[in-house]
Each structure stands twice: as C-alpha cells, then as structure tokens.
Design brief:
With 204 residues, the protein is of the alpha/beta class. It has 10 helices and 4 strands; from the N terminus they run E-H-H-H-H-H-E-H-H-H-E-H-E-H. It folds into 2 domains: 125 residues, HAD superfamily/HAD-like (Rossmann fold); 62 residues, DNA polymerase, domain 1, CATH 1.10.150. The chain is 50% helix and 8% strand. The longest helix has 14 residues. The radius of gyration is 18 Å and the shape is elongated. The protein binds magnesium ion. Magnesium ion binds next to loops.
C-alpha cells in the first residue's frame, strides 16, 4: 500500500459539533419561538441558491429571520448559534498528534461558512497548528459531496489519491472521495478514527 502523505478532514461532526445542521436549527427555532416552516424554507432556499462560503452570519440572519421585525436582537441569535458549536476534544487530540508527528500534509475539507464557525473554535484549530493550509471550502467555494472538491484537494496538495486519506462523518461525502481513489475513514468516534489511521500505516 502506498504511504499516506496527506490527511484531509471534515470539521463539523468530527472536530467540532455541527454548526447549523438540522438539530442546531431546531434548537434555534425553539429558543426564539421561530416559525419553523418559514425559517427552514428560507434556510433551504438560501443553501441551494448561495455559495455559503460567501455568507456572513449577518446576511444569513437578515434573510432567514430578521427580514421582518422580531422581539429579540440579532446579537442574541448570533451568540446562541455560536454557543451551539463546541470542540470535540477527543478527536482534536488525535488530529493534533497526527499533526505533531509532522509526516503528512493536513487540510480541512468542510462545507460550513467561515462565519458560521465562532472565532474561538476556529482558533482551536489554528493555535494547535493542525491545519495551516486551512479550509479548501472556505477559500474555493465548492462543496462536498461534489467530486470537484476532492480533485481540488489533490491538485492543491499535489498528491495522488492513493496517498491521501479523507475523514468525514457522512458516508455520502466519503463516496465521492472513494470514487477518485482516496482512502476514506467514516468518523464514529476518536478511538475508532485513531485506530483506522494507524491501520492505514500512519505513525503518531
Ligand atoms: Mg461533518
């Protein structure tokens, strides 16, 4: 088996809890007594129509919630959304050890907008120096599971697919990478991710 020289990793559901996935949106609806059908409809239409790497949270909130008067302030909604995103310390520790071993190129492959991740949590990744090359998505504006994002990751890292492993919690995202020939790991928990990385020959 060719030596693994690059690790690409999802963020939401692997290193941090998910940003504004359906569970978090349901919490937002409940917290502020939103009209769930209206909010969810606007969210889905925005998701389909916009490249969410280009969103900022202000615009997102303006278009999903504050397009009409509300009894709460935008800042309250912003703080609540940020509070929903929490680090997953177990998997961060594993990935930090892989980074510290210094044997592979590492980058995130994530769909979330930069703005939808609170700065303190982005700093968790940056300060551990885990992903110096940052997010393919945020820079290039294409999303999983589109095959182009995996091709771009290969091009940018100048790697062959068989030298790369991609970690994600969703099987649909992994399928596109696997079709291109990357190794894949479906994230279930930190111990399983560590064991699967070692099975692929990584030493850390
Ligand atoms: Mg995910």
């Amino acid at each position: 088996m060719p030596k693994i020289t690059a690790v690409f990793c999802d963020v939401g559901g692997v290193l941090l809890t998910n940003g504004l996935d359906h569970g978090e949106r349901a919490a937002l609806v409940e917290k502020f007594s939103l009209d769930s059908k209206d909010f969810e409809g606007r969210h889905q239409m925005l998701s389909a129509a916009m490249d969410d790497a280009a969103w900022d949270l202000d615009e997102y909130l303006d278009r999903t919630i504050f397009y009409r008067p509300q009894s709460f302030r935008k800042q309250e909604a912003r703080e609540f959304i940020y509070s929903l995103s929490q680090p997953l310390p177990g998997s961060l520790a594993v990935i930090a050890r892989v980074a510290a071993a210094g044997t592979v190129f590492m980058a995130t492959l994530n769909n979330e907008s930069r703005e939808l991740k609170p700065a303190p949590h982005r700093n968790v990744l940056a300060s551990a120096n885990i992903f110096p090359s940052s997010s393919v998505r945020a820079i290039w504006g294409i999303s999983k599971p589109h095959a182009e994002i995996y091709r771009l990751a290969l091009d940018l890292s100048q790697r062959q697919p068989q030298e790369c492993v991609f970690i994600d919690d969703r099987s649909l995202n992994l399928e596109g990478a696997r079709r291109l020939g990357l190794h894949t790991i479906q994230f279930l928990n930190a111990a399983q991710m560590e064991s699967d990385l070692k099975t692929l020959g990584l030493e850390f």
